[in-house]
Amino acid sequence: MSEKYDVVIIGAGPAGYVAAIKAAQLGLNTACVEQWLDGKGKTLLGGTCLIVGCIPSKALLDSSYKFAEARDQLGVHGISVEATKIDVPAMLARKDKIIKQLTGGVAALFKHNGVTTIAGTGKVIAGAKVEVTDKDGNVQVIEADNIIVAAGSVPVDIPPAPLDNEYIIDSTGALELTEVPARLGVIGAGVIGLELGSVWNRLGSDVVVLEALEEFLPMVDAQIAKETAKILKKQGLDIRLGARVTNAKVVDGAVEVSFSTADGEHVETVDKLIVAVGRRPRSEELFTSDSGLTLDERGYIYVNDFCETEAPHVYAIGDIVRGPMLAHKGSEEGIMVVERIAGKAAQMNYDCIPSVIYTHPEVAAVGKTEQELKADGIDYKTGVFPFAASGRALASNEPEGMVKLLAHAETDRILGCHIVGPSAADLVQQAVIAMEFGSSAEDLALTVFAHPTFSEALHEAALAVDGHAIHIANRKKRK
Ligand code: FAD
Ligand code: NAD
């Protein structure tokens, strides 16, 4: 039996590694168990987010956007670029360098803060202990006063399109394509499908996205989703809604994808097929039946609002528990949990978690959508401002999209902010801060925004809530 820790964390993704660093900062003797190995058998810290998720996808999104901008959009500024070319291996190498830098950065932070890394696969066993099996099959049992499970998630696969990791791939494979496929199929018009579909579309692939649902981005405010669909279609993404994939098979070095829609049966032939139909919690082999942990009806580890499982002193955070599968959600849960372990009165505001789809322009949101407010029977007011009326957006040749603010009809409290447009990810954060402080739309309207900035669109949307927008004609009667 090794030394006893104050906290042992299973998983070094953004939920687990942030919890580990924070725990150590709070003076807790902390260890983190991680199973991910690089090609040389060395432990990699950072999880899905740093290795095959947020960061590599954003690296490719940025590279591909710069390519598409140089090819298609600089002409309007009077700049001509002859024969834009993409060197895909160089693009991938840049992404890999960033991953190396960031995963190495987590290792350095662990060292700096005194977090012990334990290489191997962890399992919670009875008595709130962690059994760790290393790559050579050696088993050790770690004792701790507190255990935090942060084992994350993995892609969902579907029987009609089994992965072969060459032609039929998941999001990880889609970050590794060494050449631009002439025709690319994507199953699922969710966040991954739209982001990675955009990467390869910008680089020249003909991209067809097959989405089972009839509605595009149902979790997004309907007005914003409609605008987004229009913009992405213009960019060349061929999004087929109500498309149920029935079969995908490799024939002569290409993938034949069969699917049915209301119009009947169809077949598309593509060079690569990305399956992006969601992620599921990685809960198998993670705890023994006598550990006290349980799964909810969707396979997530059951936790309460404080991320406490049903086993005393065992917590679970991040993608392995309910709530949006977002890196920042898991990190904040990790901080809440270790602060509570350290005796602080921490809690998390689950109503104020922003989400972003990193297409261009970005789609960003926080709080309730208009359709949710309607369904909940809440009286609300809306303020919408189009980027086409923003001086900064026009100067930057980014006139597409809008900011939409939703406020309570009586109290004026901001209930939601939904944006498709330039720098939406950063703009929505301003609404997140306002909402965290319980701000009204009028509070935002009374705030001074620098000119010319994209954020003026948020200011104008706040003004528009009560019909006071300056740079558009107000339809509402002013109070
Ligand atoms: P993970 O990051 O999955 O980490 C879990 C860690 O636990 C892994 O390192 C794993 O090896 C380890 N582990 C699992 N089981 C064990 C075990 N038994 N023993 C030891 N170690 C174990 N989110 C955003 O917020 N913004 C984005 O832009 C974004 N982009 C994404 C793009 C893609 C392509 C993908 C796939 C995901 C993206 N996400 C994004 C989602 C984000 O990556 C996840 O929400 C986030 O990584 C979850 O963090 P986590 O720590 O809970 O789990
Ligand atoms: P998702 O849930 O966003 O989208 C999956 C889509 O696939 C849905 O629209 C769903 O209706 C569709 N679908 C499901 N089964 C299907 C089928 N058989 N045929 C056709 N369509 C089908 O999931 P994702 O895009 O795989 O992403 C997984 C998770 O990762 C998300 O929950 C997201 O939170 C996270 N993520 C976040 C970001 C970000 O924050 N920018 C980026 C990537 C991933």
Please give the structural blueprint.
Blueprint: E1 4-10, H1 14-25, E2 30-34, H2 47-52, H3 54-73, H4 88-113, E3 116-119, E4 121-125, E5 129-133, E6 139-149, E7 153-155, E8 168-169, H5 171-174, E9 183-187, H6 191-202, E10 206-210, H7 222-234, E11 238-240, E12 244-251, E13 254-261, E14 264-270, E15 272-275, E16 279-281, E17 314-316, H8 327-341, E18 355-357, E19 362-367, H9 370-376, E20 380-386, H10 391-395, E21 402-408, E22 414-421, H11 424-436, H12 441-445, H13 456-464
Parallel strand pairs: 1-2, 1-6, 2-3, 6-17, 8-15, 9-10, 9-15, 10-11
Antiparallel strand pairs: 4-5, 5-6, 7-16, 12-13, 13-14, 18-19, 19-22, 20-21, 21-22
This protein binds flavin-adenine dinucleotide and nicotinamide-adenine-dinucleotide.
